[in-house]
DNA sequence: CCGAGTGTTCGATGCGTATCTTACAGTCCG
DNA sequence: CGGACTGTAAGATACGCATCGAACACTCGG
């Protein structure tokens, strides 16, 4: 009876927003932040559900990190699921791409290509 | 000998940034602002060089407006030219599109499609 | 040459938000 | 059960940035 997910979570279950219900404004603001950009990039380079929130290499504390994930959820960019004590993530590639064509690619390509 | 442009301008000539020299960060931040988004949309719906800075329907004063145009120039989104006492604008569609594929379309499509 | 029109610069202000610290609420393992 | 680990919530702080008002610079038409 190990990984049961869903059931408990932490205090409350993560609230998700469908990309279809996200405004361009919100999406762009969410993405136009250095820390969140980094999160998205790392997330894109990992398998779905393989990364817990704390496993990212960003220069902010847990609290701020939690906030950023909240913003990403609100923008329909990230889906979360509770897996034991950890909250694991998945990048909503296709759904987000369908709503905001090209945007994710832009973030992922980043400046690395230049 | 009417419109001679270039020559004088106001105090200094407008400083432009090539889209190629703009970071994704900068581009996204520039675009992720309601007022600037509006400017871009109106600009996209007008012929090149047909709109002076003051001719846009945005709810901010001249000072703020000037600031926004400065940001847009810095992001490689807008080109300006002095024409008499006015400063007229042009959206750098192709150049910007080449550097940030899809981004401009995204802003222009906006929420109108939903 | 003066006045109207246009846009920039400067200084000050207000608000949003990213951040930290601390406290708390869960989950799991020994 | 008790402690380690993970993430969220709440309160405080700091900084960026959008905004405004006023002063200035430049152009053009009478």
Automatic annotation (TrEMBL), chains A, B:
<protein>
    <submittedName>
        <fullName>Helix-turn-helix transcriptional regulator</fullName>
    </submittedName>
</protein>
<dbReference type="GO" id="GO:0003700">
    <property type="term" value="F:DNA-binding transcription factor activity"/>
</dbReference>
<feature type="region of interest" description="Disordered">
    <location>
        <begin position="1"/>
        <end position="21"/>
    </location>
</feature>
<feature type="compositionally biased region" description="Gly residues">
    <location>
        <begin position="1"/>
        <end position="10"/>
    </location>
</feature>
<feature type="domain" description="HTH arsR-type">
    <location>
        <begin position="16"/>
        <end position="111"/>
    </location>
</feature>
<dbReference type="InterPro" id="IPR036390">
    <property type="entry name" value="WH_DNA-bd_sf"/>
</dbReference>
<dbReference type="InterPro" id="IPR011991">
    <property type="entry name" value="ArsR-like_HTH"/>
</dbReference>
<dbReference type="InterPro" id="IPR001845">
    <property type="entry name" value="HTH_ArsR_DNA-bd_dom"/>
</dbReference>
<dbReference type="InterPro" id="IPR036388">
    <property type="entry name" value="WH-like_DNA-bd_sf"/>
</dbReference>
